[in-house]
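re: ur question from the group chat, yeah i did fold both. here u go
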Amino acid sequence: MESVAVLSHIVVDEVFDSEHRLLATEVGGAGAYAAAGASLAGEAGSTLLVSGAGREDKALLEEWCTRRQISTTGLFEVGVHSPRTRIRYFSDGEREETPVFGLEHFESHTPLPRHIPDQARPLSGVYLFHDHERSYWEEVEAFARTFTGPILWEISLDACRIEHRAEVAELMAVVDILSINETEARALSGASRLEGAIAWLQRSATTVLLRRGSQGSLVLAGGAVHVVGTAPTAAVDPTGGGNSYTGAFLACYARSGDLALASRTAAAAASAIVAAPGAPEIDDRSRRRVALAARSVTFESR
């Protein structure tokens, strides 16, 4: 069985309310949610999460992954603690995130292609979540020269500034798929309107997943714009919706090569994730529900 490798952080979140009261301690991070989306779109054990993990938290993180049928062979030990994020929600619905152990500690747990275990191969696709840092991309570029499957980059907010536009354009040529939300696309392109952001993104031959939250998404590929709807759901917690959409798209696309099927499946997986606080446990029954919901998602080309 081929695997999809998700290279991004899994962290421990401490969630506080506006009065500084601790509400919950739970597993989160872009890597965790992308892997959950990929697991919903794949088979049991076909998603490999590659991330640094502190030895005191590793058992907790492994159990979290196991309950979602995500392979843990890619979790490598770094120090005592895993990255920990303090999330504070305010009365107006906004939130603030602070790395408890600092940015340097967080970055020390960043996964690179060298961390993909040999026993996990062959791989059908690779997911990356990062900014435009040069040293990171030097290793990714070397890996890309030998890897034949699709490489997907979910760009981080830090890279989405107009002053980084030329660098990002160069890095888009390294990957096969870019995932970005509408706000990030406008900031990166410098366009005030969505149409301008689309025009800038289409200068690249890279397929682009342009996420628009409750408005669905656009897939830019081969000069065409495909409009993707959403799966019916009552959104409870938007956390991880974009990550899970992206992970599910890659898992489905790497297996099928079908752009429409991957887009519909991604929308359905994201809807399943945001329907409850945190990522739900995953089994074949939940995968069947996602596959069924994907049939109702619209996919129109223009």
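okk and heres the other one u asked abt
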Amino acid sequence: MADVTRYDNFIDGQWVASNRYEPNINPSDLSDVIGDYAQADAGQVQAAIDAARRAFPAWSTFGIQARADALEQVGLEILARRDELGTLLAREEGKTLPEAIAEVVRAGNIFKFFAGECLRQAGETLPSVRPGVSVEITREPLGVVGLITPWNFPIAIPAWKIAPALAYGNCVVIKPAELVPGCVWAIAEIISRAGFPAGVFNLVMGHGKEVGEAIVGSRQVDAVSFTGSVGVGRGIAQACVARGTKVQLEMGGKNPQIVLDDADLDVAVELCTQSAFYSTGQRCTASSRIIVTDGIYDRFVAAMTARVGRIKVGSALAPGVDVGPVVSAAQLEQDLRYIALGKQEGARLACGGERASGATEGYYLAPTLFVDSTADMRISREEIFGPVANVVRVRDYEAALAMANDTEFGLSAGICTTSLKYANHFKRHAQAGMVMVNLPTAGVDYHVPFGGRKGSSYGPREQGRYAQEFYTTVKTTYIG
């Protein structure tokens, strides 16, 4: 057996070994070990936080051109290595290679965008109500920012947290999801050569119980940005709010996709397929809740069932594959439990529902479509986070809108219609942070705000210029 490469943590400008390493396994091929990745302990997390605190005074006042140049260099290298990094992403997370390469390109563009933001930071000068006094309003960095990222977008989400944090003058301690450390390690390696002073960026890999809790529990961390599950997010919020630490959360979704009687059937079927099943359904913006009005319901179900049956499942690196494996054994088990639950609740299984086979041993699951389900079923209310969707029949647009909003989540919501009247009404009345008209609920741009409402998000939006709301604090200065 060939030797497996070890990958260390990155602390204070140095690669630091650990007492424990864990393998990074390819979910498409369980015999493929990508590498052994260091598992940080509490002491190493503290060393990373200490390094970030030491680096902050100089970095927070660093020249904006040098800061922009460093971020630009990171973005350009990511883009130049898109095929290599896309292959890594497909191996460790299970996205198909085209999707993985597209995600890498998005990450590179994020760094390039925030390189520009270094030069676009603006303030205001206002007259005071008092004669002879002027007022300046400026933004300043927060300090040390802890970043905790999920496994489903292993390079894009870290990029959209790291890049603005650094652009606005903060220092970073990041913990990637333990299932997918490889992509963030690759970013760290690029950053290590891009001209950032030691301590500005630190990578500590490991499990949430050890590494995540050490970051969240530290009084020397000034802000925490987290993307992940609802339960963990709520715990992080409680810990941060208790000591006045700024916190930003992106958690779950049970995103509705409405299909009205007047919809173009082919468009509706394709966008619902992409929303529900591409990226193996492992997107917080995925739509596993398809709400269809009565007049088109039967035709939609027949066409959707046929379309889902044509989805090709296989190795993420194989050509022609539409959907790769589920990310892990635990996630596969969760998906299968929800499929069994859907059957028990009385939904009709139209397609899929069982494990799929591949050329290699992996966590393959056939795309699964339930129909004739109801809004009160658990498969209609709880986030499954896999290639499982269900279709619910409603009377008309008003009933569809009410059902779409009847959820504790509010991340993304979509409507498929040729009616400008209904499209405009839905844009205003959908209780979601992002609304899609005749587009999949999943799929967003890197230069505009990302985030939701209700139980999906907490705190300022991510991405685009709105990222400054979280990564900076406002200072008001009076000058006499």
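fwiw on the second one: The domain at 256-437 is CATH 3.40.309.10 (Aldehyde Dehydrogenase; Chain A, domain 2). The first helix runs from residue 42 to 60. idk if thats what u expected
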